[in-house]
Each structure stands twice: as C-alpha cells, then as structure tokens.
Amino acid sequence: MHIEGYDVPNTIEELTIEQFDHLNSLEFEDLTSLDRWLKKFTYLGVPEEVFDDFSFEDMTAVIQEFNEGFDMTPDKILEVEIEGFNYIARESISAKDMSLIEKTWKGDKKDFSAESMAILFKREDLSRTEHYTPAHIKLKTDLFKGQPCKIAIPFLNEILTVVTKTTESIVSE
Amino acid sequence: MQTFKELQGLKDSPVDSLAERYIDIILLVSDYDVEEVEDMPLSELLKIIKKLEWLNTQPTKNHVKKIGELEFLPFTKITWGMFIDLEHYYLDNYVENMNTICGILLRQKEVNKWGVEEYEPYKYDPKQRGGIIQELPITSVYGLITSYLDYRNNLINNRYSNLFDKPMDEEEDLTGIDLKEYNEAKKEEERFSKWSYESITLTLSGDDVTKMNEVFNLSLIAVLNLLSMKSDLTR
C-alpha cells in the first residue's frame, strides 16, 4: 500500500518477521490507539509530518487499508532456505520446542516471532544438541528476522491456541 | 512414596513453562526417555497429561496396617516424646518427612508372658526405619499420615485447645510503633514455641533434667490431661 507516495509493506509477503515483531511490541506500550498507529506507520517508513494534515477519516481509511492487506490464515510453510542452508520445521510443535517458546514469551517479547521460528526450524545438517545451543538459536533468530512474516503466522496462531488451552487447564487444576 | 514426594515438589515449585512441567511430570511417573517425551508432538503430550489428571487427586485415606513384621502403632499409644518428634517433622514439611513420620509409628509387636500385646519401645532411628516405606506405593501409607493429622488436629483444636495457643494473626496494615510492637510480640511467640515442649517437659519432671526421659515416655493423653489439670487448678 502507499501513504502519500510512500511505500508501506502491509501484506504477509512484504512484512518481515522483524517488522511484524516490532509492530506487535507496540501493542504492549501504553499508547492511545491513534498514537500506536502513528508509530507503526512511521516505523514502516512514512515520515511523521505526513500525518499532520490527516483528518480522523483519513487516518481510519489508511488503518483499514493496512488491515485488509494482512492475511492471518496463510498455509504453513515447513521448509525454508536461508543463505544456502535448508531449515525444516515439523508439522506439529514438539513439547521441548513449546517449553522454549513459553520461556521466550515470558522474557523479552521484542523478538518473539523470530526467536520462535529459530526454535521451530532446524537445520537439516545439524544434530539435536547443536540445534538447541543458545548461540545457534541466537544466530538463527537474526536470520529469521529478515524472512517474510507469512512463515511465522501459522505457527504463532498454533502457539497462541496452545498457550490459551494450557492456561485454561492450569487455572482449572 | 518417593515419586509422590517428587511430584509434590514439582507442583510446589515455580514454573517457567507449563510444557516443561508436563515433560517433568511424565518423566517422573513413566518409563519414557527424555528425548522421546521432548520430541513428542505437544498435542500428544497434552493427551497424556489429561490421562494423568488423577495425579491431582489426594491418595486414598485407607492405609495398610502392617508392613512385613512391623505394625503401625495405634495413635492412643503415642507417647509425649513421640508426639514432640511428630510435631517437629509435621511442622517442618510433612510431605517431605512422610517416611520419618511413618518410621516413628512403625513398630514390632509381641505378646508378653502375661499374654498382653506389647509394642517395641521408641528406641530406634525413625529415619532409618522410614526408609523401608520409601519404595511402597503412596496409596498404602498416605492414609496413615492424614489420619494422624486428623487425630493431632482434633487434640490441638478441640479436646485440648485450652493448652495450645492459636498462632498470632498476620497483620498487614500496621506501621510505625504498632508494627514494631507486633514484630516483637511475634518474635517472642516464635522463641517461646520453639522451646515450649522442652520447657513443659522440664516443668513436668520437676526441673530435674535426669527425669525428662520418664516424662517423654508417658502417654501423650496422660500428659495432656495432666497439663489440663494443672491449668484448671492454677486458674
């Protein structure tokens, strides 16, 4: 999409996982809804002064256009090639992966999607032990930041469902 | 019993990740190996946990009366000395000390020359004796622990409540001088309760340390009756 001549990535193919994580992190900041959207658009490359002459209606229209481009139900991608290496994810999230993802969620949520993908996608040529070393996960987190967020969304939907279910079960325990 | 204690320990520990706790629970109660559970799809892990929901229920209140040649002592035969030890292990952490508590109550029994059944005196190491129940299923002894607790609570809270002070209530809104006074009173209470049983024993033995063992061997009920009588007479 475009705002006053500026390109704004708003589809799951255009937005990177890093951008997606940043936009999500703004949800945890104490901002009004309009201020949050202003921050989102300026982060995505539109200068703040562009919005100086925007009416409330103009703002609502660009927010609506942004949301319409965003598909939250893409197909799951289980294989990704980055810098010449193949990374494979399993169809279903394993118990260990989920336990690491939960810990990431409880920590700094800044790179949550990128780090979750780094946990779920495993390089074919590496052993199980190598895959789970913190240094390797950190390296992969940086690699996945540059990938389109369509890779992360189906997994994030699943993680959210599981977290909700397990939270319900612990509450009823 | 060991598994039950470890399970309780897990439940009481803070949790960083629910999935990790579930993995630990399954590893504790099953023969799966670590990688097998960790690599399990989460949906399968949750199915197993669902099947283990019974772990959240209290074990049965029934318990065995004998383990090999040893029998559990009827509570009416508990002595003052045994009661002090039981209180110590109960207040410290009764789940962790469950086998020692059982060890205090597990006795040999024989019929003496008068044809009367007699229990082995309390002159052994209860921790060592408690070791024999470590491998028993929790369901065989848990009921004994809860039955003893019911018996003990009935003595302290009902039958002899006049002898046992209720602990001071927690005060949250105190400040300044009130808080200082409260803290001093609380400290005094803790200091007194730490030594109260020994102090009572010394009083009952007429301040003669060499006679304290005799008092320890008196029946618990006899000592509580004696203390009630003294309390009534001095009122």
Return the average pLDDT of chain A rounded to an integer: 90
- Oligomeric form: heterodimer
Low-confidence stretches of chain A: none
Q: Identify the strand order in the major beta sheet of chain B.
A: 1-2-3
Succession of helices and strands of chain B: HHHHEEHHEEEHHHHH
SSE-based structural type of chain A: mainly alpha
The sequence of SSEs of chain A as H and E is: EEHHHEEHHEHHH
Radius of gyration of chain A: 18 Å
> Major beta sheet of chain A, specifics?
3 strands, antiparallel
Helical coverage of chain B, percent range: 55-70%
Annotation keywords:
heterodimer, A: mainly alpha, 2 domains, two-stranded antiparallel sheet, B: 235 residues, mainly alpha
Q: Layout of helices and strands, plus pairs?
A:
The complex is a heterodimer of chains A (173) and B (235).
Chain A: E1 2-3, E2 6-7, H1 17-26, H2 33-43, H3 56-68, E3 79-82, E4 85-88, H4 95-106, H5 112-120, E5 122-123, H6 128-131, H7 134-145, H8 152-172
Antiparallel strand pairs in A: 1-2, 3-4, 4-5
Chain B: H1 2-12, H2 18-29, H3 34-38, H4 42-51, E1 66-67, E2 70-72, H5 80-93, H6 98-105, E3 106-107, E4 109-111, E5 117-119, H7 126-130, H8 138-159, H9 176-204, H10 212-216, H11 220-234
Antiparallel strand pairs in B: 1-2, 2-3, 4-5
Helix pairs in contact in B: 1-2, 2-4, 5-6
